[in-house]
Amino acid sequence: xxxxxxxxxxxxxxxxxxxxxxxxxxxxxxxxxxxxxxxxxxxxxxxxxxxxxxxxxxxxxxxxxxxxxxxxxxxxxxxxxxxxxxxxxxxxxxxxxxxxxxxxxxxxxxxxxxxxxxxxxxxxxxxxxxxxxxxxxxxxxxxxxxxxxxxxxxxxxxxxxxxxxxxxxxxxxxxxxxxxxxxxxxxxxxxxxxxxxxxxxxxxxxxxxxxxxxxxxxxxxxxxxxxxxxxxxxxxxxxxxxxxxxxxxxxxxxxxxxxxxxxxxxxxxxxxxxxxxxxxxxxxxxxxxxxxxxxxxxxxxxxxxxxxxxxxxxxxxxxxxxxxxxxxxxxxxxxxxxxxxxxxxxxx
Amino acid sequence: xxxxxxxxxxxxxxxxxxxxxxxxxxxxxxxxxxxxxxxxxxxxxxxxxxxxxxxxxxxxxxxxxxxxxxxxxxxxxxxxxxxxxxxxxxxxxxxxxxxxxxxxxxxxxxxxxxxxxxxxxxxxxxxxxxxxxxxxxxxxxxxxxxxxxxxxxxxxxxxx
Lengths: 348, 160
Known about the structure:
The structure holds two protein chains of two kinds.
Chain A lengths: L17 H22 L3 H10 L1 H20 L3 H39 L5 E11 L9 E4 L12 E3 L4 E8 L4 E5 L6 E6 L5 E6 L6 E2 L14 E4 L11 E9 L8 E6 L8 E8 L16 H12 L22 H4 L15
Antiparallel strand pairs in A: 1-2, 1-12, 2-5, 3-4, 3-12, 4-5, 6-7, 6-9, 7-8, 8-11, 9-10, 10-11
Chain B lengths: L1 H23 L13 H12 L6 H15 L5 H15 L1 H6 L2 H26 L10 H24 L1
């Protein structure tokens, strides 16, 4: 039985009645929700609030950091030497690959110059650490410890050593929230590396599974195909590995095949991720007005790069609200067929 | 009187901060979805025990803090907290004298109302997660209620 504190006199008769207060606060909550959901009018407010609660994140973080520091400072010499050898080996291998990469990227640049398309050149990266807090077991969002003070902007692509992790959805001063590609509100335009077939990989809410709902049963995909980002959304740079196809099921009576893929990035394991600044395609896509047939959100995703003008000012170059960009809600993505194709600028 | 009110305020603040930390502290994968809504339990407790300090506004702010911490729609959890606090305040004179098992049952229902409101708003703003695991925190939180009451009552009596 709850003890009654001495100060708890009846609340009736003091101030406005309970029902009235409830009514006002309820209306206020609804107004706040509508403002936040419909217009994104509360971006700055949220960013301030988020900065204000940041000490709480720091408190939760502290024991883990202390543990990391302890284990880091007391590892023995043999272990360090073994690790050093391993890292040296990896570095050597990577160097050898880089030798070829330099030549290839130069060749690529020249070819692109011929085709008058510049994309994926001039990249800058920043390592961010994933803050160890659980926000919601059902939404694949994580917090990282870099915010607008470090130049992070909304819609920024996030990678790890194996592939694309997700994109930044919210930024405050000292941290930001990223949505993983496996979140069921996220979709990323991809293409099959083998033959260039474009599609959209939609998150399923399962961290090991993406789904590609817009591939017809005739399309040439098979298990073990590598999916890379196609860069058509103007958010993710082209050519980064995203996932590997695990399952293709073709039912002749259906229009679309059931295709599933496994993300390559270690979404559940990596502690450090890479924030990427890349120079977006400077040429404007030929059309800005999309035909009405295209699903609204992917049409908006298409137009995003047209507006994201100057890569030099990353913070300013992200016009798209969270719903736009590659974060197409699954409901919108289920609209008319190959949502992948509307992102393709028609030939002039 | 006033000093008592102040110490109560201090206790409310302290417990709230602890509950906020519990809301975001990383848990092992296996028990993640069973994380109890400690903050909501505290809101119910303080609404019963110190209704003049922990009013509807307090509940609303707690909910907003959850919204900010978890990155959900601003006002979503705030509205759910508000509804629970309203019901608690409305029936506080009755709930307070219930025997503990009866009280736990009431709290269980309040938690279910909360979870339902959150779920419902989730469904309005987008594709909601429909797994049954979602309702597990209602059970774990209700199971925590007798313990919470025992601990906080002892603390309150000891300080008085």
